[in-house]
Amino acid sequence: MAEPLRVGVAGLGTVGSAVVRILSAKAEELAARAGRPIVVTAVSAREKGRDRGLDLSRVAWHMDASQLARANDVDLVVELIGGAEGPARACVETAIEHGRPVVTANKALLAKHGVALARASEEKGVPIAFEAAVAGGIPIVKTLREGLAANNVSRVFGILNGTCNYILTRMEKDKIGFAECLADAQRLGYAEADPTFDVGGFDTAHKLALLASLAFGVEPDADGIYVEGIASITPLDLQMAEELGYRVKLLGVATRTDAGVEQRVHPSMLPKESAIARVDGVTNAVEIDADAVGALVLSGPGAGGDATASAVIADIVDIARGVTPPMFGLPAGKLRSPTRAPMGRHEGGYYIRLSVIDRPGAAAAIATRMAEQGISLKSIVQRGRESESDSAGGEPVQVVLITYATTEASLRIALDAIEADGHIDGAPQLIRIEKR
Amino acid sequence: MAEPLRVGVAGLGTVGSAVVRILSAKAEELAARAGRPIVVTAVSAREKGRDRGLDLSRVAWHMDASQLARANDVDLVVELIGGAEGPARACVETAIEHGRPVVTANKALLAKHGVALARASEEKGVPIAFEAAVAGGIPIVKTLREGLAANNVSRVFGILNGTCNYILTRMEKDKIGFAECLADAQRLGYAEADPTFDVGGFDTAHKLALLASLAFGVEPDADGIYVEGIASITPLDLQMAEELGYRVKLLGVATRTDAGVEQRVHPSMLPKESAIARVDGVTNAVEIDADAVGALVLSGPGAGGDATASAVIADIVDIARGVTPPMFGLPAGKLRSPTRAPMGRHEGGYYIRLSVIDRPGAAAAIATRMAEQGISLKSIVQRGRESESDSAGGEPVQVVLITYATTEASLRIALDAIEADGHIDGAPQLIRIEKR
To answer: Out of 3.40.50.720, 3.40.50.300, 3.30.10.20, 3.40.50.1220, which CATH number does the structure's domain B5-133 have?
Structure first.
């Protein structure tokens, strides 16, 4: 059997510890699959003393990840530090400079510096693999990069953040508000102390940028993504969605359109019976629509130490076997710079919830403003007041409109006019409907 | 750019024609992905004259697939003839003898001769790839062989035959019998003139043997699979399943048990809300349960020219790039010969439907026979007669029992005793319940 592949693991959190543990526990089988032993020879983390349940007695310890990346006894560097800059970036760049393959779960780093890293890695002839950076244990990177080589992908979309899906699922099931649900998720360890990155949609956006690159052969373009989080979703929206045959999910969606690549992250309504709509809790799921294969759906755990380590180790085994495809499927020089399809050009159906001040003519004025923009309404639902006696008070009533496909630009004009007319109280709630 | 990879395609049915068409239409992008051009230089099929909508003017035509496999202008052989013996086997063996990589969709060939072919291909140092042999366009082979290298798989199961799933879905929806539904499927082209291979479960068994090999590191063992088809399923069973919270699917299931590898193909009841239960029509879906990744579900088209060609071409691109993993994930010499877990040792819940001759003591006798084998009943449903006046006639009534987990051996003993007691009319209907 060939020489062992000596692995340095930078970052010993949940994922890093699981990688070290599984590489040791399954050494024999992994060697058979890889054609050579895979051995952890070095690790790096901030706190040396912490008990991680790992035997690190025969492993070199580096306080500095970049030092690990250039250590003489390391052939491959696993970067699990996280963050687009700082020690993670330095570690990956150092590894490449020294001609060492990199396996990383760092979506922020790749969404921002992916193309530069791909170029550097190609110049040095060493691979960077990142299965673990998107949708945890789901082999979506491999599927897009290798499994669908024969396809033109028209759309890739899905649930890429377990925290958001957990919150939306619980809000729906327990009929509780966003804030209460978030606090609960934090207590259970499903949400960070600072949840902005997750619930604001930014984590999903980083992952989407990588998926869009793999799917469409373009450079990752995280800055070109339209991003909305889930904080504005109310239990009433979820209930209305249910009544109208939809479920609300935070989706990342990348679509090839005539106007360019449309990338967006926002709460979406999906027909209840669609595969992605049915995915509950912390599970992730991705659908790929492509010309040859049709629709392909992958679902599984999007996070967790062992599931993410599963993706990291699959990459290590591939590299041990000499499998080194271009990072984003195509050589970096062949990735196109994506034309950004502006959000105003987005076409689709919309769910609009308005707090309408109940006075004569309000409904007619709203309908007129929609009609002026050529927007057809598929359904209109008014949530009546509890008792007749309230009817004279001029208190707002909730009116939900479902539109047929229109452009975002037209809809925004109509909503601005409705607001200017003074018939509604507060900003309209708008949730885009994702077609099957 | 490197030398072109010259491909010979043996078999120009729907899939073969799609392979030739897509390789030509997407030549440029595929070359970028593969690092070298991929060119079809030779084809082989029985009827030369037929119009397949392909320009074959610059392609060598071979009447004999084995001749194609040893032609001088062929670097890689795509075998799409089908069948475990005859020209398909000769073509693949010839290609390997001549040191040419093979891409095949031939599940029958691999289920029967897979180990011998894996050994021969390793001796010659040429790969055999077979993504298209299982679940059409779903990249399940790549996922098991490469994506889950870090995992011990405990179970792999799913809907692997679109014809059966189409029939069961329609029987359920339109409340029609198996024979009528089959005739319909034949008219629509979803079922062959001789449907035995599909509806008898044998096609599923071939695919399952390959999945089990990849999942558990064992030699494919199609002869060790317990196989039942769907012909015995009635609309009443589907209706009862619905009422009890289940759906009926023809599943292939391979499980790692203490007694060895359990492989079985039969109609199964799945909890309605499970991912696999929700898959309708000709779609295929596979769930993998594994220690690191948890549960992973892949669904997509299980057949069709373009979807299957997508899998064939992904394999070609991999080989063009030099990706040549061992055929079944591990080197042939490391595949274990599976210990077959006997079906009598199978443990699970059961749906039992009995035509009970309605006379005093029948129910008590049946319950006693179950209790004698230590089988607990989760529910008992009796389909009452339409009118009271029938009650004296001694006509059979339908009684459905749902058992808690028991062994198949115990259940068979109980059912034999119930039959011997003479309280039932005809053989019991038995459908195994697959746990989530």
So the answer is: 3.40.50.720
